[in-house]
Automatic annotation (TrEMBL), chain A:
<keyword id="KW-0812">Transmembrane</keyword>
<keyword id="KW-0813">Transport</keyword>
<keyword id="KW-1003">Cell membrane</keyword>
<feature type="transmembrane region" description="Helical">
    <location>
        <begin position="88"/>
        <end position="116"/>
    </location>
</feature>
<feature type="transmembrane region" description="Helical">
    <location>
        <begin position="161"/>
        <end position="179"/>
    </location>
</feature>
<comment type="similarity">
    <text>Belongs to the binding-protein-dependent transport system permease family.</text>
</comment>
<feature type="transmembrane region" description="Helical">
    <location>
        <begin position="34"/>
        <end position="57"/>
    </location>
</feature>
<feature type="transmembrane region" description="Helical">
    <location>
        <begin position="200"/>
        <end position="225"/>
    </location>
</feature>
<keyword id="KW-0472">Membrane</keyword>
<feature type="domain" description="ABC transmembrane type-1">
    <location>
        <begin position="93"/>
        <end position="292"/>
    </location>
</feature>
<keyword id="KW-1133">Transmembrane helix</keyword>
<dbReference type="InterPro" id="IPR000515">
    <property type="entry name" value="MetI-like"/>
</dbReference>
<dbReference type="Pfam" id="PF00528">
    <property type="entry name" value="BPD_transp_1"/>
</dbReference>
<protein>
    <submittedName>
        <fullName>Carbohydrate ABC transporter permease</fullName>
    </submittedName>
</protein>
<dbReference type="InterPro" id="IPR035906">
    <property type="entry name" value="MetI-like_sf"/>
</dbReference>
<feature type="transmembrane region" description="Helical">
    <location>
        <begin position="273"/>
        <end position="292"/>
    </location>
</feature>
<feature type="transmembrane region" description="Helical">
    <location>
        <begin position="128"/>
        <end position="149"/>
    </location>
</feature>
Length: 307, 353
């Protein structure tokens, strides 16, 4: 199943043998290609490697190498032990996990229902679709959004990070164009058998749409996990900060973590501690990335072409 | 039989249902008429002919499914759009939008007397144009390189690597850049160990547009490549073969076969960029505004945030945000119409739904 989907999703095939009409690649040309591939890979891979390596490195090596290491000679978990002995990071992880899981579930629920209902020619279907597309074109802006959240009493509530993003225009378009490709006869036959629209959606349509649901769900999850500005805008209470905001204030702005991790003796170098925070923010994305990558090409192209 | 069961199809293109037997409960003539007129053919699709009550009885479950989404849209898109009315008022936090005094266009006019706004506007344009010129070709070149990579395995691994940064948050991306190029970062540490002075990559306002573009390339060039790759894979190979038979070399084939094949995608993405020209990555700049200084890193979105939410001039912030939103929407609309005029598909198809 997965290999089949993968083949379909990539769809960017090439032929391994060179056709007769194509000239043999010149040495300069191939050399340039290799150079581009190596440089691009290094630009992306090296920072990730350095961050991981430094977070595991011991204090002495960090000091000797001036702050960053490429490979830890005596790898240890001091930085992580320090990080997780204070409640700062644990709390932030809890907040991020909560908004990501609950937010994704709610967003999927809302998006699936709206996308399915508007994928068939029903009452109010067209104006609702146009209304969603319009929100992709024109957004209200930061100030009115802030006032709205305030009016709803959601300032300092984690719901302010979940509810406003529950219907993403792009994800809606991807889901809807998938649902539109489900043959009407299939749905019709279930209806003749007396199934309600709810039942049709949950027992027939959704099992057919596992892949697209997974992709859209992952898009939502990654988006919520990565969101930083909403938390900055709506949350004054630092105890409710998600991981991204913690990352910003303790690593980018260089706030001292030792001061805020009250009662915890800091054994690790501040440098490796900071890198450990980066790793904590990075790892969940790296974990879901293989699943995401398997399907997203298709989703992106559908969304872009069928706007 | 439950009242929701119907023989009439929701799928308009199912003539079988139209010719189907009568509902056991018996139907009114109007419903029959309505059903016969429901068809995918636009000339016949006078759905208004079906009485509302009938359509409601048929579709109420589907309409119910729209409720959560519509509610979210109303609360977090449309009511806030109406909330922009404070741009025309002298809004204060202790007043409601209904009590605030109406001041007309004063706040919009006032923006042009605010040097911070003019700075933000100028920076936005400079950054957008730099990004448009320097970023845009990168994914195309990258796609051409990837498309010609031959061992499949190398190609797949390389694709996985270049897509990855798109999924990292801006906080992470800026952190990586900070750790690498910042004043106490990896490169400057190396320079110091080698006895050289440090280079302020991340904080120099004059080179900031370039730096911002490099960050954008790092994060999104691989992602932007996907769509070009997809377009490349649809090019008819026999075109290349014919061109080669006619004596076209590698570069002539690129120019006369590959690039024309990419044209619709290039136009589509140019439209997207032009429509987006007033919203250069917001998080990217708010994260660096303190280090680089508002003189170079303040953009329209950060201006809205700092003058409105932080500075307390809510109406001025809303005015700047509204002006930006309206101009952006008009830009997308205009660029899209232009694309239609050139015979390209554009961003929004003419017919929606």
């Amino acid at each position: 199943m997965t290999s089949l989907l993968k083949r379909k999703a990539s769809g960017l095939s090439y032929s391994p043998t060179r056709p007769a009409w194509k000239e043999k690649p010149s040495r300069l040309y191939s050399g340039l290609k290799v150079l581009i591939v190596v440089v691009v890979t290094a630009c992306i891979g090296l920072p990730v490697l350095v961050v991981f390596a430094t977070s595991f490195a011991d204090n002495q090596q960090i000091i000797q190498s001036g702050g960053y290491v490429l490979w830890p000679t005596h790898p240890n978990l001091d930085a992580y032990r320090t990080l997780f002995s204070g409640n700062l990071m644990i709390r932030a992880l809890g907040v991020s996990a909560f908004i990501t899981v609950v937010g994704t579930a709610i967003a999927l629920f809302v998006t699936i229902l709206l996308a399915y209902a508007t994928s068939r020619p029903v009452l109010f279907g067209r104006p609702v679709v146009l209304a969603v597309l319009f929100t992709m074109l024109f957004s209200a802006g930061i100030i009115p959004m802030y006032l709205m959240i305030k009016q709803l009493g959601l300032i300092d509530s984690l719901w302010s990070l979940i509810l406003p993003g529950a219907l993403g225009g792009f994800n809606f378009v991807v889901m809807r164009s998938f649902f539109m490709n489900i043959p009407g006869e299939l749905i019709e036959s279930a209806r003749i058998d007396g199934a309600s629209d709810w039942k049709i959606l949950w027992t027939m349509v959704l099992p057919l749409s596992k892949a697209v649901t997974a992709v859209v769900g992952l898009f939502y999850a990654v988006g919520i996990w990565n969101s930083f500005f909403n938390a900055l805008l709506y949350l004054n209470d630092t105890a409710k900060w998600p991981v991204q905001v913690v990352l910003r204030s303790y690593v980018l702005q260089g706030k001292s973590m030792a001061a805020d991790q009250l009662g915890v003796a800091v054994h690790a170098q501040p440098q490796s501690l900071q890198m450990a925070v980066v790793v904590v923010a990075l790892v969940p994305i790296l974990l879901v990335y293989p699943f995401l990558q398997r399907h997203f090409t298709k989703g992106v192209i559908t969304g872009a072409v069928k706007g | 039989m439950s009242p929701t069961t119907r023989q009439e199809t929701l799928e308009t293109s199912a003539p079988a249902a139209e010719a189907g037997p009568m509902n056991a409960r018996g139907e009114t003539a109007s419903r029959r008429r309505g059903r016969a007129s429901r068809s995918k053919n636009p000339a016949q699709s006078k759905t208004h002919a079906v009485p509302f009550k009938v359509r409601w009885r048929r579709d109420w479950q589907m309409v119910l499914m729209m409720v959560p989404g519509v509610l979210v849209m109303l609360l977090f898109a449309y009511i806030p759009i109406l909330g922009n009315v404070i741009a025309f008022q002298d809004y204060q936090p202790y007043l409601t939008v209904f009590e605030a005094p109406f001041v007309g266009m004063e706040k919009f006019v006032g923006l042009f007397d605010d040097p911070a706004f003019l700075d933000a506007f100028r920076n936005t344009m400079v950054l957008a144009v730099t990004q448009l010129v320097l970023f845009f070709p990168v994914p195309i070149i990258l796609a051409l390189v990837v498309d010609s990579l031959s061992p499949r395995r190398i190609r797949n691994v390389f694709q996985s690597i270049v897509y990855l940064p798109h999924f990292l948050s801006w906080v992470l991306v800026i952190t990586f850049f900070q750790e690498f190029l910042g004043g106490a970062g990896f490169i400057n540490n190396m320079l110091k160990l080698m006895g050289m002075g440090s280079i302020p990559f991340m904080t120099d306002p004059t080179t900031f547009p370039l730096m911002a573009t490099i960050q954008l390339v790092w994060k999104d060039a691989g992602w932007a490549m996907i769509i070009f790759l997809a377009a490349l894979s649809t090019v008819d190979v026999s075109l290349y073969e014919a061109a080669a038979a006619d004596g076209a070399g590698r570069w002539r084939r690129l120019w006369h076969v590959t690039l024309p094949a990419l044209r619709p995608v290039i136009i589509l993405l140019l439209i997207l960029r032009i429509g987006d020209i007033l919203s250069v990555g917001f998080e990217q700049f708010i994260l660096q505004r303190d280090n680089v200084g508002p003189g170079a890193a303040e953009v329209l979105d950060t201006y809205v945030y700092y003058s409105g939410v932080i500075g307390g001039d809510w109406s001025a912030g809303a005015a700047a945000g509204l002006a930006k939103g309206v101009i952006s929407a008009l830009l997308i609309w205009g660029a899209n119409s232009l694309a239609h005029k050139f015979g390209e598909a554009g961003l929004f198809q003419k017919k929606v739904g």
